[in-house]
Amino acid sequence: MAANAAAATTAKKDSQQALLLGRFEIGKLLGHGTFAKVYHARNVKTGEGVAIKVLDKEKILKGGLIAHIKREISILRRVRHPYIVQLFEVMATKSKIYFVMEYVRGGELFNKVAKGRLREDVARKYFQQLISAVAFCHARGVYHRDLKPENLLLDENGNLKVSDFGLSAVSDQIRQDGLFHTFCGTPAYVAPEVLARKGYDASKVDLWSCGVILFVLMAGYLPFHDHNVMAMYKKIYRGEFRCPRWFSPELTKLLGRFLDTNPDTRITIPEIMENKWFKKGFKHIKFYIEDDKFCQVEDQEHDDDESDSHSDHSTMSESEAEMETRKRATSLPRPASLNAFDIISFSPGFDLSGLFEEGGEGARFISGAPVSKIISKLEEIAKLVSFTVRKKDYRVSLEGSREGVKGPLTIAAEIFELTQSLVVVEVRKKGGDREEYEEFCKKELKPGLENLMREELESTAVAAVPADVSHLPKLPSDIE
């Protein structure tokens, strides 16, 4: 009996040790390098499969790679895209650093190409997804610098995922001459200007690598190849390659633009997007991130039409418009109510004025207006600045169209019930530049909500305000 109990205790301890930080069950080894090993793992709470990259702190310190690791983490958080392997979180112990990443089941694109060239339509699909991901990175000042089929993975749906940003760089690293100078990349995919060691434009280097990848997908072999590395470098430097006979004239011409040894005349992202061969069947992916997951917009035009049909009452009579507003209001679920603990958590200390203050990347406003009118006002504000609006119950997401280093400005607004006649509108920045967010709040959002509340106050008797909240500020204009 004692022996059985001891065995059970040992088994329990082994089980606990097998769980990484009490959350992940470690599985088979997927791959390894000099400084890291990658394992398949399972989140025991959700059952979700993930890939965990385990880095040895001692090796990183000895190799002087601390800044390198920090940069990789920063880059992966900046480039969240459906065609890029996602970093979920970073954890650490005294001896290890753990990257918890998306597990991509389909393996490397290289394994497909190793069996022979791909059909043109299949190669085009993968290439379109690659360019979509690269364009997204470049718009955010991120350059991969080691694009090759081995770093392109395929998920269970056959979609491409760019991985391994270990050699990537950001625009902050550009020297005063406006160029990068680090020699990096895989020999067969490296651009001629990198070989020249005179400085290079990293965006043009990535596009050269994309050209080599396209050639490999369509031909089944490399455009520049030689058993002698120096001989191969000479071919790359001179741009000596020949397209096989099964390449169409359109594809041959496109590859000539990609594999142009002069980076100044090499094809650009906008030119790629307008190329006839590339555009065939191409759909620009539209997505947003909700609750830390990608949500793809399948039919944006339909969504816009539907939104316009709801918000535009110009063709209705006054009574019809009022009925439409009521219908929309009653079709929504009741907003979440705030209890005393919620209210206290909203404000620093126990000062309820925090409900009406702006600061950092969030702001809160109080209103006596109906929820439907608040949502309509948010839609109206978004329309003025050409923002996309997405609605889900009492949450509204506003997304700008202008790309920046940190991506488009994305703002989330959520409505909470304070009393039966008062609600709190909580606004926060989900993505984009902070200065742009603050300017939008100051010039568009705050004045728009203030106008709405003025209209409500003018149409509602002051006596209608419940006595127990009459001491609260009535307009966010009280805040400076």
TrEMBL record:
Residues 333-357 form the NAF domain. Keywords: ATP-binding, Kinase, Manganese, Membrane, Nucleotide-binding, Phosphoprotein, Serine/threonine-protein kinase, Transferase, Transmembrane, Transmembrane helix. The keyword Transmembrane applies. ATP binds at residue 53. GO terms for biological process: signal transduction. The chain crosses the membrane at residues 205-224. Residues 299-331 are annotated as: Disordered. GO terms for molecular function: ATP binding; protein serine/threonine kinase activity. It catalyses: L-threonyl-[protein] + ATP = O-phospho-L-threonyl-[protein] + ADP + H(+); L-seryl-[protein] + ATP = O-phospho-L-seryl-[protein] + ADP + H(+). Residues 24-278 form the Protein kinase domain. InterPro entries: Kinase-like_dom_sf, NAF/FISL_domain, NAF_dom, Prot_kinase_dom, Protein_kinase_ATP_BS, Ser/Thr_kinase_AS. Its cofactor is Mn(2+). CIPK serine-threonine protein kinases interact with CBL proteins. Binding of a CBL protein to the regulatory NAF domain of CIPK protein lead to the activation of the kinase in a calcium-dependent manner. Belongs to the protein kinase superfamily. CAMK Ser/Thr protein kinase family. SNF1 subfamily. This is non-specific serine/threonine protein kinase. It comes from Rubroshorea leprosula.
